[in-house]
Design goal:
Shape: globular
Strand content: 15-25%
Number of domains: 1
Bound molecules: zinc ion
Helix content: 10-25%
CATH topology: CNF1/YfiH-like putative cysteine hydrolases
CATH superfamily: CNF1/YfiH-like putative cysteine hydrolases
Low-confidence stretches: none
Largest sheet: 6 strands, mixed
Number of strands: 12
CATH architecture: 4-Layer Sandwich
Distance between the termini: 6 Å
Number of helices: 7
Order of helices and strands: EHEEEEEEHHEHHEEHEHE
Mean pLDDT: 97
Length: about 240
């Protein structure tokens, strides 16, 4: 199995798309986007049609990739993907939101999800897991890893966002960082962890991100730093 998040690579100051960007709906030139995708496919040893990237909308929709080629229309308004197919790379784009990679290596079911604050509050992680179980995965075997995303020190939010986490049953003492003034911060990876624990994923099967997208602008795209018209980090999972 392969699970990766891309780094920007060659960054040109002032060019918000410079480096590796495979996202087709945030304003980059399509020739650049397709060039990056082809390069990644070559690296993974797959055909272009086996790299599946949805158009994300901060929805809670999960698609099951069950055939190749996969109908592009089924990738609109989708924020998580699940597959049992080998040699098919499922991917999602992020720039500060949490990329979640899921794998049940025993039953050979994988998933990937985009969990921003809306997706996290709406439990996209548990929706992805539920779809994996429908595809044959078992809860006790599912491992989850979080890719580069915004850290608690960087993620300042409005009180209306905090309210969403409180109203939707998150443990505020761990997720809401009230010591930041005047506005609170949210620890998004911690919130993702809570949403996984509450459905029965084992804590030892959850891996936290190793770095922050906003703290490392030369390695990763950050919407907080660059604005939404910028490239994205691609997080990919594929099984042999
Ligand atoms: Zn940070």
């Amino acid at each position: 199995m392969v699970a990766i998040s891309t780094c920007r690579g060659c960054v040109v100051e002032g060019d918000n798309y410079s480096g590796f960007n495979a996202c087709h709906y945030t304003g980059d030139d399509m020739a650049h986007v397709e060039g990056c995708r082809k390069e990644l496919c070559k690296e993974l040893g797959i055909n272009r049609e086996s790299l599946i990237i949805p158009r994300q909308t901060h929805s809670l929709n999960v698609a099951v990739v069950d055939t190749i080629p996969f109908d592009a229309e089924k990738l609109e308004n989708i924020d998580a993907l699940v597959t049992t197919l080998s040699g098919v790379a499922i991917a999602i784009n992020t720039a500060d939101c949490v990329p979640l990679v899921f794998a049940d290596e025993v039953n050979k079911v994988i998933g990937v999800a985009h969990s921003g604050w809306k997706g996290t509050v709406g439990r996209i992680a548990s929706k992805t897991v539920a779809k994996m179980i429908q595809c044959g995965a078992s809860l006790s075997h599912i491992k989850v890893a979080m890719g580069p995303c915004i850290c608690g020190d960087c993620f300042e939010v409005g009180h209306e966002v905090v309210e969403q986490f409180v109203n939707n049953g998150f443990d505020s003492s761990q997720v809401i960082l009230n010591h930041y003034q005047p506005r609170p911060h949210i620890d998004l990876p911690q919130a993702c962890r809570q949403s996984l624990i509450e459905i029965g994923i084992r804590d030892e099967n959850i891996q936290f991100p190793t770095c922050c997208s906003r703290c490392n602008p030369h390695e990763f795209f950050s919407a907080r730093r660059l604005g939404i018209n910028s490239g994205r980090t691609l997080t990919v999972v594929m099984q042999d």
